[in-house]
């Protein structure tokens, strides 16, 4: 336990350093505008076209940023262009490929105008970009993080499968840990809801559980290749919820559809009203799964970053120990939340599927 505490402490300190550096960008501008907590938080939780690692000052006093460039894949006017995000030089440079000129502005890619610039229009106190957008298929930080998690899951399960072939009756190490988690998901989550249909849906539900769990854990780690907010991205959680939605409705038996579209045992004139309510319920289920996972993971990141920001808001070094203790506590709590949210998503998915495939008694 003491090693876990030490590891979390190191992660917190490293995260403090990164945030301090991020808040130090453009010191002259910061002096004029003051410290902006919202900009800092949004910068750390939103997706990006590069994986920022750290900033440092060189001997000549200039700042140097260390980041991992990611592939930019854009399609515009019949032309597919592929290059690395480093070509944008952190958004300070226009990239020309063929006849197209691309600009990176607030992590969105636009087509530059005839002068190679952005056209901005002020609307309701905000600056709206008028430039056209290309189709963006880029591998962003969240996408790359999910690729790492997917490869990690493949390696883990292949290793465990090989270990079972070599010594099926004596699990140890990683094999023993995975057996415990797999049996927990099977016996405590899936079987109570699906019964005899457990084996049919277990591969899907195990994949959902471990994919969410590993992405949650990777998001807590503030150093590369961690720190991506994949499960705090509503597009990711919506996609996972859609998989559950299709699993429910493609496997629903005749009794499920009968109770959904033409409820038996109630007056005929009430049935159309209940059908509308049930169809709305079909849509509400994936929406609830989407928002629950997205909101809980994003809220955790926002709270941690807000606690770190107390140091810069009060501009006092005496706040550092207080902020550090709170952040350390929140990181430990986030470990619990990482497992809890994977459990809840899998449990609700198995419950909804179980309701759709349940045999009529």
Summarize the helices and strands and which ones pair or pack.
Layout: H1 2-23, H2 27-33, H3 37-45, E1 50-57, E2 63-69, E3 71-76, E4 79-84, E5 95-97, E6 100-105, E7 108-111, E8 120-123, E9 126-129, E10 135-136, H4 141-166, H5 174-194, H6 198-220, H7 234-251, H8 254-261, H9 271-314, H10 319-357
Antiparallel strand pairs: 1-2, 3-4, 3-10, 5-6, 6-7, 8-9
Helix pairs in contact: 1-9, 1-10, 3-9, 4-6, 5-6, 5-10, 6-10, 7-9, 7-10, 9-10
Structural overview:
With 361 residues, the protein is α+β, with helices and mostly antiparallel strands. The chain has two domains: 71-138, no CATH class; 142-357, no CATH class. 60% of the residues lie in helices and 14% in strands. The chain contains ten helices and ten strands. It has helices at residues 2-23, 27-33, 37-45, 141-166, 174-194, 198-220, 234-251, 254-261, 271-314, 319-357; strands at residues 50-57, 63-69, 71-76, 79-84, 95-97, 100-105, 108-111, 120-123, 126-129, 135-136. The protein has a three-stranded antiparallel beta sheet, with no helix packed on it. A three-stranded antiparallel beta sheet has the order 5-6-7, with no helix packed on it. A hairpin with a 2-residue loop joins strand 8 (120-123) and strand 9. Helix 1 crosses helix 9 and helix 3 packs across helix 9 (271-314). The longest helix is centred in the last third of the chain and has 44 residues, at 271-314. The radius of gyration is 25 Å and the shape is globular. It starts with a helix and ends with a helix. Residues 1-33 have low confidence and may be disordered.
